[in-house]
Hints:
By secondary structure, this protein is α/β, with parallel strands linked by helices. The chain has helices at about 15-25, 40-45, 45-65, 80-100, 155-160, 175-190, 210-220, 310-325, 355-360, 375-380, 410-420, 425-430, 440-450; strands spanning about 5-10, 30, 105-110, 110-115, 120, 125-135, 140, 155, 170-175, 190-195, 225-230, 235-240, 240-245, 250-255, 255-260, 265, 300, 340, 350, 365-370, 385-395, 400-405.
Amino acid sequence: MDYQVVVVGGGPGGYVCAIRCAQLGLRTALVEKGKVGGTCLNWGCIPTKALVSATKLLERAATAEEMGIAFAPPAIDLPKLAAWKVGVVSTLVAGIETLLDRNGVELVRAEGRLDGPGRVALSDGTVLSTERIVLATGSSAIEIPGFSFEDPRVWSSDDALALTEIPEKLVVIGGGVIGLELASIYSRLGSAVTVLELLPEILSVVDLDRRTVATLKRALKLQGIDVRTGTAAQSIEDGPDGPLVRTDGDAVPADRILLAVGRRPNSADLGLETVGVEPDRRGTLPVDGTLRCGSDEVYAIGDVAPGPMLAHKASAEGVALAEAFAGGEMRTFDHASIAQAIFTDPEIASAGLSEASAKEHGHEVLVGRFPYAALGKALGMREPDGFFQVVADASDHRLLGAAIVGADASELISEAAVVIESGLTLEAIADAIHPHPTLPEGLKEAAESALGRAIHSVNR
Length: 460
């Protein structure tokens, strides 16, 4: 055998799996035709969050006069902003390449596909022989009828993050995570943004309670973002003043159209038939409890495997698989408990079950909430909007879920995620002494509220 493990795909699942395999003494190759880091690093998570940070400065500058601090109106140098974003990404890509090299992973610059049991055929004509194959090929943006990425008027998220222009009117088709994050970014850059969502509610595939979604919708409206739910985008028409997006109700003017209706696993043209693996109708690969898809030592992680399409989920699966290859016990994952963050304004972060889902699972629940407006730190930051929520089992106080909507929610959810993963109780949060004044106090206060012993809010 040439290798003990060959990983196909260098995203956050693939490169992490390859590095951990090599650390554990396994001869490992990583096959990646493009940049390591995958969509998340190069065209998704990292550039999006860099632009969230950059454009948040525009909002702060515009409202700083409320604190008695005045600025001249900020000017946007779009090429410079784009170059800065590219620099952030390039630094991280170079860092991953260094880690692969120093951990002894052979990085193979080619496209790979299965060629029967234990064989990966490369686009340069060579074939790698291996004991195990890990498929970590990620996902791609979906098109819908009437809207093609071949049309220069239609943007993918990659196009939007390229920062080639700031359209006067931007129509976002899709009220999911990607669409709303980019809607927030372009609204702060100065675009008039309209979001069209086919389903009755935004963020419908995320397990969030209606209170959380309603809080975000109010904030988006205050920011001038026009969110239209239950609205189908049907086609693009040429209007007298430019393109129009025809819906099932009217026509919406658009200089550019961002199509963000979801992603599909990259499982086509992988040679799956050579090892007897068949994806489902969405393209997801079937796996067992060890992430094996088939009997020929082929495994799948990340977006091509079942579960949420999250970078940190892919990385965790990659590490777990590597350690199992080296003789360790295979770790299993509860997809519902995996924390996630949405970088809208305000941010939303959650872990575990929502109140509604906990009840659907048969739990009698205790729910505690605490508003940002009651936190001294939040008021000092001029971030009073939002709240903390915890959901626990009423019988044993075990934490089942948490949601935070508000400033820095993405930074605050990890405490709750640890408590949920560890099977700990409300008391684990409520009894821990949190530093004052800080935002994490809000989680402690929510836990105390659920226990009926709140001090800084009224017990109900």
